[in-house]
């Protein structure tokens, strides 16, 4: 285990300084923006995958179930049935328009994207079975995470080491990929372990005492909502920890939570500022995307600005985790291999 390097006495950079430094880092590896640009161009100009037939079949099944229930139960409010059918029809329409390839950039470790609409005239391929849909979704997610880890790995190397070594990145990107997928599986498992017993308990209470069951359901829903907000705040730097500190999903979660806990209001301010900038730029990109030239500008502009914000997030994490004392000898200072007097591979092993 590598000993903890004492943190520098120099004050950590503020939020605005961190944002500025993030763009400075991107300017040193400007070629990294080519990856999100290429992905967006593929989503814009490439083929389209639609799940319309699957959701059409689900809609027909649902409507038949509603009709059967209405005929058996009797006295069912016609307005409620119409609202249910309209909701299903809306879902079918949205599913038919959604490009499943967009899932390449909808995950916790994706490249930034403006999610450009597919151009008219491109070939469209229909997924007509539920198994095929699930397979496409799973494949798009794992491939998208791998692309995202490659992109984030470049920025993390630049932020941490001051240079990018492609050979090293080629070896480590698989570790990042497996760590992100491992975290997703842990979250799914933990959610099932917690939600199933609570759901069964609430359902049982509702059968015995409906009034108490309603209160329990409201409390459980409120608790889940609060937990989700805290989860998003305290694990905001989870992927940053994976690619900067090069640790697995559990240690990355602990490291992210420690950084947030020790810099709570600064972190909240940073998160809010990043989201405000991102949302504001999305409005601009959407306005520009009405024509082909504007869409090209939006894709390139988003790739650069979003990369700067991503690098700023990595910097924010790095500068603050380096000042934390080791937690039970596990989490130490994040620094370049050269500055610690240790070769890169031994530093990586000490974090595992």
What does this structure look like?
The chain has 352 residues and is an all-alpha fold. The chain has one domain (15-51, 98-351). Helices cover 72% and strands 2% of the residues. It contains twelve helices and two strands; from the N terminus they run H-H-E-H-H-E-H-H-H-H-H-H-H-H. The chain has a two-stranded parallel sheet. Helix 5 (130-161) packs across helix 11, helix 8 (238-244) crosses helix 9 and helix 9 crosses helix 10 (264-288). The chain starts with 14 loop residues before the first helix and ends with a helix. The relative contact order is 0.14. Mean pLDDT is 85; it is low at 1-8 and 328-352.
Percent range for helical residues?
over 70%
Strand order of the largest sheet: 1-2
Instruction: Report how far apart the termini are.
Output: 10 Å
The domain count comes to: 1
Order of helices and strands: HHEHHEHHHHHHHH
Q: Major sheet: size, sense and barrel closure?
A: 2 strands, parallel
Shape: globular
- Overall number of strands: 2
| Rounded radius of gyration (Å) | 24 Å
Helical/strand content category: mainly alpha
Mean model confidence by pLDDT: 85
Oligomeric state: single chain
List keywords for this structure.
2 strands; disordered C terminus; mainly alpha; single chain; globular; 352 residues
Helix-strand layout with pairing:
Elements: H1 15-28, H2 34-45, E1 48-50, H3 52-73, H4 78-97, E2 124-126, H5 130-161, H6 166-208, H7 210-234, H8 238-244, H9 249-262, H10 264-288, H11 292-321, H12 344-351
Helix pairs in contact: 1-11, 2-11, 3-4, 5-6, 5-11, 6-7, 8-9, 9-10, 10-11
